[in-house]
Specification:
This protein is α/β, with parallel strands linked by helices. It has two domains: 2-241 and 451-465, 3-Layer(aba) Sandwich (Rossmann fold), CATH 3.40.50.2000; 264-444, Glycogen Phosphorylase B (Rossmann fold, 3-Layer(aba) Sandwich), CATH 3.40.50.2000. The protein contains 17 helices and 20 strands. The strands form four sheets. A nine-stranded mixed β-sheet has the order 3-4-5-2-1-8-9-13-14, sandwiched between helices. Strands 17-16-15-18-19-20 form a six-stranded parallel β-sheet, sandwiched between helices. The chain has a three-stranded antiparallel β-sheet with strand order 10-12-11. α1 (18-30) packs across α17, α10 (300-311) packs parallel to α11 (325-337) and α10 crosses α15 (416-431). The structure holds adenosine-5'-diphosphate.
Length: 466
């Protein structure tokens, strides 16, 4: 069984969120069951000189325009990744857009990537292409249109991102007008790339069982709930996992002091160091942390609305987040008003994020919706108790009662009242050392690896080929 996994970002090469982590850890876990290789674009900011140019080159025809493609490869952590090198993909500084917004030619950039993936799949004799999110959503369509013998699995990591373009984009990416109808790519008078993945794939997955149900409802369906109901027999929800070697407090090079559930005093050394570095006083106070893209989805309106009451508690709060400028401005105002709040917003910082996970007592994740979420699992692994809203993968992976993994504090709903109630419960729990340590120790020993989920994906691959 030969699988080609394609995504627009894969850790450690390029990462803006959880998709990149999944692209690494799922593929690594699947490597134990199948022959699997991955492919992603070669962006301009990536160190091309560290990759090996291979002897495969071709050109891709999009609407009568030919684009030259060369391929590079690299082996990392036992996984071979191919990189699609084309001037359109590498010309930009970022993956998807800059301060002015998304790149206007993202339709051509990612259609080009999809066409190159399909070409590569044929060259390496892939049996299945596993495509992810809208950037690779044209893959199932192109495979179906060319009547190739390759099966396609399409995974939705976040239904909110559709890849919407004007109608004339169809011609630019070389697709016939016949695709412009409701049952194909048309979406309220425009073109929706994500629909191609949903409609033309042989199997469809999303990243948690609860999200698989939620996206078939009006509240979470982002206008695609009807289409997802139509294809629900091919839709499965498989919970993501994390790479337990990347996220391992016992030997994490980013930490001042490594620790396990048996040496929790050493976790405290990290909290001391971080608070000293950030000038936060009160080591006995609970340290709340949050590490997130700075976007509406993650509950920032709710958080900002609750900040006065939250920061008036006897707590410290460290937020590492990057993204929306408006939120940034608002949050910076609070750093002036409250001495117990630090907002770190200077870009993406993997090592700093590990230090914060290791230092926190509680991780806040009041997401409005959450397909799966990885932060809550990473936090649990670092002995930082997650506080989550009861949606999507957060509902499937964090539990306030019983002994299921992980243990945490679960908000009933996305409201200021529920968030502040959760904070109060956290503060009470913080005062109960025995209960808190029992919870931490259970969480740190949970199995958050991709092993179980990889088996489910493998079963699905086998079903596709049978
Ligand atoms: P999403 O994929 O929606 O962004 P997830 O919780 O699934 O959310 O994954 C987010 C990942 O990105 C986690 O590994 C988190 O630690 C990381 N992350 C988010 N923002 C930053 C940042 N500014 N610096 C470093 N890591 C970050």
């Amino acid at each position: 069984m030969q699988i080609l996994f394609c995504a627009s970002e894969i850790y450690p090469y390029a990462k803006s969120g959880g998709l990149a982590d999944v692209g690494h850890s799922l593929v690594k876990a699947l490597g134990k069951h199948a022959e699997i290789q991955s492919v992603m674009p070669l962006y301009g900011f990536m160190p091309k000189e560290e990759f090996e140019k291979i002897d495969i080159a071709f050109s891709v025809n999009l609407g009568g325009v030919f684009y030259d493609v060369t391929l590079y490869e690299k082996l990392h952590d036992g996984i071979k990744t191919y990189f699609v090198d084309a001037p359109l993909l590498s010309a930009t500084e970022e993956m998807y857009g800059d301060a002015k917004g998304d790149y206007a030619n993202n339709d051509i950039r990612f259609a080009l990537f999809c066409a190159a993936v399909v070409e590569l799949a044929q060259i390496i004799h892939a049996d299945i292409i596993h495509a992810n999110d809208w950037h690779s959503a044209l893959v199932p369509l192109l495979v179906r249109r060319a009547k190739l013998k390759i099966k396609t699995l399409f995974s939705i990591h976040n239904l909110a991102y559709h890849g919407i373009f004007e109608r004339d984009s169809l011609a630019r990416v070389g697709l016939e007008e016949s695709y412009f109808h409701m049952d194909a790519l048309e979406f309220y008078g425009r073109v929706n790339f994500l629909k191609a993945g949903i409609v033309y794939s042989d199997a469809l997955t999303t990243v948690s069982p609860t999200y698989a149900k939620e996206i078939q409802t009006k509240e979470f369906g982002c206008g695609l709930e009807g289409l997802l109901q139509l294809y629900k027999t091919k839709l499965t929800g498989i919970l993501n996992g994390i790479d337990e070697t990347v996220f391992n407090p016992q030997n994490d090079a980013a930490l001042l002091s490594c620790y396990s559930s048996d040496t929790l005093a050493k976790k405290y050394e990290n909290k001391k160091a971080l608070q000293r570095e950030l000038g936060l006083s009160g080591l006995k106070k609970p340290l709340f942390v949050m590490i997130s893209r700075l976007v509406h989805q993650k509950g920032f309106d709710l958080l900002i609305e609750s900040l006065d009451a939250f920061l008036s508690e006897d707590v410290n709060f460290v937020l590492l987040a990057n993204g929306d400028e408006e939120y940034k401005k608002m949050l910076l105002l609070y750093t002036k008003k409250y001495k117990n709040f630090r907002f770190l917003c200077n870009g993406y910082d993997e090592a700093l994020s590990h230090r914060i996970y290791a230092s926190g007592d509680f991780l806040l994740m009041p997401s409005l919706y959450e397909p799966c979420g990885l932060s809550q699992m990473i936090a649990a692994r670092y002995g930082t108790i997650p506080i989550v809203n009861k949606v999507g993968g957060l509902k499937d992976s964090v539990h306030e009662s019983g002994r299921k993994c992980a243990q945490g504090i679960v908000m009933r709903e996305a409201s200021k009242k529920a968030l502040l109630g959760a904070v109060k419960r956290a503060v009470t729990l913080y005062g109960d050392s025995a209960k808190k340590e029992d919870m931490i120790s259970l969480n740190m020993n949970c199995d958050f690896s991709f092993a179980k989920s990889a088996l489910l994906y493998h079963k699905l691959y086998k079903r596709l080929l049978s």
